[in-house]
Amino acid sequence: MNLENINIIKKSIYDLTFEDWIKFVEKLGEKKFRAEQIFIELYKNRRKSVDEFKTLPPIIKTAINESFNFEIFTSTKKQVSVDGSVKFLFKLIDGKAIESVYMPWLDDDSSTPVRETLCISSQVGCAVDCSFCATGKLGFMRNLTISEIVGQVLEVEKELNTKITNIVFMGMGEPLLNYKNVVESIRILTNDKIDIIRPKRITVSTSGVVPKMFKLADENLGVKLALSLHSTTNGVRDKIIPINKSNNLNKIMEAIEYYFHKSKLPITYEYIPFAGLNDTEIDAKRLAKISKRLPSRINLIPYNDISFTNPVGYSAELKPTDKDGITEFVKNIRKYGGTVTVRDTFGSDIDAACGQLALSEKSNNL
Question: Is 232 helix (H, G, I), strand (E, B) or coil?
Fold first, then answer.
């Protein structure tokens, strides 16, 4: 068997949690502190081979070399937007692909980012099939592994020679439908021994997977929660977010309240206004009322074109609220006491904006 085939069989070294490493070294008759050394070498020092590990005895280095490889992606390609955002296309070991988006937030009088956000994926494709989202048109292929989730952060930092300040699970896939691997990846990213990112700098966005929202609250991870809301009534939400039929707004709000009371962190409501569908003054009043139940904010997201996916059915009927309509909608939300921000759109010229990640032909030819 050649080396290439051996590497395919071996597990990625980045798929192990800190607890896994403790078990690994103890099985070799070594002390627990060796697990911390491995973590520091991998994630703080960013070593790319066992030969580069400086602190480990030969017995551990040999065992790691025999059991794991350092591969996550077979290729990384990127496309830069006029606004400075960067879309990454990662080719996975099995030939599938995912996308992530880097978004630099600048002060008005500076060219240096004050915040560098990475929108990462949790699945290949998505099973939720929201009417406004290009990723859902791909269908669901599989969950990402821990290494494929964490690897997006490591690879982007390496490619751009930068330090990511914020991470949002808002890329391809529904994070809470890949619950275990998402939670374990968060535990790695927020491990205080390796200084990648603080928990409060991570936001997990969900379409409303109620049982997992409760479970996530009990994990006490200290990460923020965002709800992809987009409608204040079950009737409309059933049409644009099919999962609402089994996870309706009443159930979702119970889970939201539970999450807030456990985490003490403000909730974010993501809301795309569609012309004549969910952008009336009545909608604004209901949205403000929902937002005032707990400390929260509303992120108003302009609808980004997904025509490159050739949408059919209800998806093809959705029309964006125009700029004047958004201004009026924001005015009404504030009139009724809601806190709202119109979110900047990044990367629309490269199909990298919110809802556009679909491995378009343009992306595959990067």
Answer: coil
